[in-house]
């Protein structure tokens, strides 16, 4: 296999890798106190860098979250408030009119070459030299031309008896042209391939790698990998559980898509753990390649989840909708051997909005000309100084639902019961909820009625936050409007 060559030259900018594992929540990682070891390679990466113990997503769905991770702006500011087909023309138009830029666009002015392995497409692909899925990026050989071959190979792979056999089979079929756009073996292979082919003249590289192993369905995993985490037991079948879901459409989606191939509710979290383990193993191989090529030392590597995952919350599967702690608390590890300290575990709120200003800061790039909602978290990293007093999040699955965390309290607020209704129709959520996160880390016990003073204060500050963001959005639109001349409206 052709080796990677060293990318950056001494004195040049650091390479930047953002690796996002979709729906990876913090609580199932040893780094965040989970009792089972699901991610030995991420643990190692974290020992060589910094871990943010109180890292939060800004929303509960992929499209708005990715736009935030790469722009440094909250969904309310950049305008992408929903996911997939629910993203309207108006959302994208706000994104454009606010002059929102994505990290590769900001880095292009500083000599970076940018790549992404991702399939979200649409506005996400702005600013990259190459953006695509493994099947678009990898050369199509024999298997790519045979329609049913892929599904046969996928079945063969899932029957692999051991890790070594799985990896060897994957390598063999990859050489014949097999790829799976959702799974980390293909995604990291495509990323390495891009690095081998696309590096130019020692220019620094930015790369986004978006992996879906940890997003439902978890039905591709070989049996030996599931066995590592699932010791049997079946208290309730997924059909019985789905019977509690009131919305028939969502019930169908849960059974036919999210939990496809899973028989028991007790199997869901172990399978999620196995999916983390699967991603983590490929992450380890990728990082080893960077080390062997001498790239690791000159790079900043970020690993996070775009949002978490409820899995089975209160006895019902609801995926990653809602502003619950299981959804908002994401892992965030940043490793940069030549820039950052090693082995720091940092307390103090940070959000995905903070990534762009922090990465630009670490790369020594003046970002004062581009307005973000986030903050550069270097004072937290180097001096343990808190950088933000609040966490703010907006739901993509309810019409108007917001969360504000300050200190130990979390307010979840909707202007009316109608605005609070989630699309799953699973359980009633009050328009106003207050949680004490020190005592109730899983935000189950609503204290809103018993603590009206705290609710009133936090509601006030949430309204201030929202109006400040709306004002900012308007001023960004006015600012990026062409001043004069030009045709059209
Ligand atoms: Zn996602």
Distance between the termini: 54 Å
Q: Characterize the biggest β-sheet.
A: 8 strands, mixed
In spatial order, strands of the major sheet run: 4-3-5-1-6-9-2-10
Q: So what's the overall shape?
A: globular
Give the second-level CATH assignment, the architecture of the domain at 15-138 and 179-388. 3-Layer(aba) Sandwich
Number of strands: 14
Please tally the helical runs, counting DSSP H or I stretches of 4 or more residues. Answer: 18
List strands and helices in order, with pairings:
Blueprint: E1 15-21, H1 40-47, E2 50-56, H2 62-71, H3 75-78, H4 89-97, H5 103-108, E3 113-117, E4 130-132, H6 134-137, H7 149-158, H8 163-175, H9 184-198, E5 205-211, H10 223-227, H11 238-242, H12 248-258, H13 268-292, E6 299-304, E7 312-313, E8 316-317, H14 325-328, E9 332-335, E10 344-351, H15 355-362, H16 378-383, E11 390-394, E12 402-406, E13 409-413, H17 417-420, E14 432-436, H18 452-480
The protein binds zinc ion (ZN).
Zinc ion (ZN) is lined by residues 22-23, 62, 306-307.
Q: Describe it for me?
A:
With 489 residues, this protein is α/β, with parallel strands linked by helices. It has a domain at 15-138 and 179-388: 3-Layer(aba) Sandwich (Alkaline Phosphatase, subunit A), CATH 3.40.720. It contains 18 helices and 14 strands. The strands form 3 sheets. It has an 8-stranded mixed β-sheet, sandwiched between helices. Helix 9 packs parallel to helix 13. The chain is globular and about 65 Å long. The site of zinc ion (ZN) has 5 residues, from loops.
